[in-house]
Design a protein that fits this description.
The chain is of the alpha/beta class. The chain is built from nine helices and six strands. Helix 2 runs parallel beside helix 9 and helix 4 packs parallel to helix 5.
Length: 261
């Protein structure tokens, strides 16, 4: 594990004048434990450059690397990325196939860095329909990084919030039918324990890129009281300074969780 970031270490990582000014407002002791990101804008980024959509996804993979590095420096413990939704199967076969292959390519290319930085990989979502080669690559990554303790990278693949809740309810219903669960004893904690994310805390902050003002079926249960931060920046252009800016904005808010100040 790692301690609270120091000003010296932060300045070594955030080197621009704008970022240094943001550091004056950042309290390393108050970094959110869990940041979740709706990575939007890869297609538009590619279209602006008259490139195939897969080029945008490749550029987006670099933004993931940048965000991992920023979270490590800022003291974030969990980073969840919305990499492929359960609705994304509607896209063209070429794009979907390219994405599934890209996941494998990126995992293999980044494994040494993930181990060096002590980043744990955790996959959430439904396995239904996901190519076996892609699942195998993620399983290997999960197994190899299981002992890493600095940052948990949660990859939401073939993920949908409504699907996740539906599957949790189905599991609980089976327990009730088997006589292992009293229906009158079901609580919010019961349902949460059956979600994909049962082993990690709910997000403190949700970031959405590309300026869209919606949550897109992402972590519907878990983000009930998360803070939201939206930027017009397209995901491939999201840099370490953008992550810092989001965290500084987050620290300027008062979280009430339904109560009053």
């Amino acid at each position: 594990m790692t301690g609270t970031p120091t000003r010296a270490s932060l300045e070594a990582f955030f080197t621009t004048k704008t970022d240094r000014a943001l550091l004056d407002r950042f309290d390393p002791r108050q970094a959110p434990a869990h940041v979740a990101v709706i990575m939007d804008g890869n297609g538009r980024w590619a279209a602006k450059r008259a490139l195939p959509r897969l080029f945008g996804h490749r550029a987006g993979a670099k933004a993931v690397r940048e965000s991992i590095a920023a979270c490590l420096e800022l003291g974030v413990r969990y980073l969840t990325i919305y990499s492929f939704s359960s609705e994304n199967w509607r896209r063209s076969a070429d794009e979907v196939d390219g994405l599934m292959s890209l996941f494998i390519e990126v995992l293999e290319a980044e494994m040494e860095n993930l181990m060096d930085k002590r980043v744990r990989v955790l996959l959430i979502g439904s396995e239904a329909g996901v190519p076996e080669a892609t699942l195998t690559a993620f399983r290997r990554a999960e197994e190899k990084t299981a002992g890493n303790d600095r940052l948990t990278l949660v990859v939401a693949l073939n993920y949908g919030g409504r699907l996740e809740i539906t599957e949790a309810v189905r599991l609980i219903a089976r327990d009730v039918a088997a006589g292992e669960q009293d229906p009158d004893a079901i609580t919010e904690e019961t349902l949460a324990a059956h979600l994909y994310t049962h082993a990690i805390p709910d997000p403190d902050l949700v970031i959405r890129t590309s300026g869209e003002m919606r949550v897109s079926n992402f972590l519907l249960w878990q983000i009930a009281y998360s803070e939201l931060w939206v930027t017009s920046t397209l995901w491939p252009d999201f840099k370490r300074g953008d992550m810092l800016k989001a965290l500084v904005d987050y620290q300027g808010r008062t979280r009430r969780f339904g109560g009053r100040s």
